Protein: FAD-dependent oxidoreductase
Organism: Rossellomorea oryzaecorticis
Amino acid sequence: MNDPIIIVGAGLSGLRAASLLTSNGIECRVLEARGRLGGRVLSEAAEGQPDAGTYDLGPTWFWPEHEPLMTNLVSELGLQTLEQHTKGAVLLEQAGSEPVQRHVLPEGAVERSVRLVHGVRTLIDAVADSLPHGTVELETRVTAIRMSDDGTVVVEAEHAEGKETIRAGAVILALPPRIAVQRIEFSPSLPEELTRSLLEKPTWMAGQAKVVAVYDRPFWREEGLSGQVMSWAGPLQEIHDASPPEGHGALFGFFGIPAERRGELGKERTLQLVLEQLKRLFGHAAERPISLLYKDWSSDPLTAVKEDAQPLTGFPDYGPAESSGVWERKLIFAGTETSPEHGGHLEGALRSADSAVRNLL
């Protein structure tokens, strides 16, 4: 191919696709609207406490027994992992004023998962480091993808220096399907059936928010608790231990209250409710974390669209999105929402990247 492959999106899927293409001697450019790598992978240091660890506000785990691509890539890149802490009692919090219940699960009831030491960002950085310098272009927003009568594909993008028109051998869209359809102009238009299929794929995590409370030590373990909580009282519906291998402790949680309600409450009140819940569950020691990290993905315009504010009631039925007609083999979809298996997971992002590159090769 004389023209480079253009990859839209520098999340795990886009970066992995670029790595596979360059390893096969195929030139590519990765265009990313954000000013950082990773997409929905977001690992942040504790605020004001740089030595207190780095914590994931996006995806956190993978399951080695079921996710071979993640397992193999992490091993190949030599990244450090730690097993998710699940030892100890689980807390159940019913709605209303009922007391918090404490349960010890049977051995083997919780499936083994692992985290990356220093966060999933280490995986993003390692994959990006495998690319030739200059492959990824940040703060570059793709606005249109056009095809001429002779089959030439042109990508229109905007960045700090103005607008740019780029010829492409093909385009890999490695971003949420709904974002692709609603934020990029296609000429000729995408087939109606494909557009409908893309719009029906909810963006994983787009309606969700995540919070991490960091402490000087994982004090709940001293009380025989795993840090795992299921709650029907909220605001957090699900809580887990997010502590680093040693030293500091951390708890992270997913919200049960929907995006619209979080917006009405505002960040300050939402986090106040979180601290009240942590105190209710774990006692006064949980009331004053040394750092409180928060990310509401529903308010991120590069992740969520209006339709994503609707809470998911079950795991979406994801699957591949295939171009047809004039766009066949010219426009290829990647990203975890287009994976036939493990959609919504890091494994799904890798599988979709592999599939996209196979389609080109």
The longest strand covers residues 141-147. The chain has a mean pLDDT of 95. The two ends are 11 Å apart (CA to CA).
